[in-house]
Amino acid sequence: MRLYSGAVSLFSRKVEIALFEKGLAFERIQVPFSQSTGYAPRHPVVLAANPKAQVPVLVDGDLTLFDSTVILEYLEDTYPAPPLYPAEAKARARCRLLELTADEILLPEVRPLMYRTEPPSPDPERQLQRQADGHKAEAALLGRYRELEERLGQQACFCGDFSAADIAIFMNVLWILRLNGPRLTGHPGLAAWYGRIAARPSAAKIAAEIAAADRELSPELQA
Predict the structure, then answer these.
(1) Tens of pLDDT along 45-87?
(2) pTM higher than 0.90 for the full model?
(3) From 21's CA, which of 39, 157, 195, 201 has a CA 20 to 30 Å away?
(4) Average pLDDT over residues 199-212
């Protein structure tokens, strides 16, 4: 099994956590990336496999997949133990909705913070707009924290047991924190959940690798 991944690709790292949790051996191929040029040159396997030319791309024998959600569902179907989705249909659907919420609702509010990893815009007005968009996103993310904490309630994990929903939400919160976004102060339940997930060997390994990549690729975050 091979995974075409990016050192600071949120969705690639989401898949890596799932692979580690399931104890699956895989070869990781890191595609070229820099904050100034992005993913260039594009890896030929990624170009051939994904019309969007993005990682992650998973190759398992004669099957090639892209999109982190599709990959996680394939891993669950093919390698069901340990499970990353609940067994009962309604619980599984709720888990998928939470994963979708992380990827499609939370992430768009994280994206305005990503300018903090990039070289400043040569256009001062554009740079000011990026900063303003980042501050607006931070306010929205505080609201998302409240929603997530309410959804979590007294559970240890979002679907009771550790699941794909926890992986997806963890990766987004990790991204917020690494981009110097809002801290979890004032949201003790969510902060405790984040600490539990971050302590899992799979998540701890990924978080450490991202921090190491940031020291090389994103020195702006270290300031």
Answers:
(1) 999 999 999 999 999 999 999 999 999 999 999 999 999 999 9
(2) yes
(3) 39
(4) 97
Burial readout 13-52 (b: 16 or more C-beta within 10 A, e: otherwise): bbbbbbbbbbeeebeeeebebeeeeebeeebebbeebbee
Domains, the chain: 2-78 (3.40.30.10), 89-222 (1.20.1050.10)
Q: Each residue of 163-193: b (16+ CB within 10 Å) or e?
A: bbbbbbbbbbbbbbebbebbebeebebbbeb
182 prior amide bond cis, ω within 30: no
Please say if the pLDDT value at position 220 is more than 90: no
Q: Which residues contact 217 (CB under 8 A, 6 or more apart)?
A: 7, 8, 33, 34, 35, 117
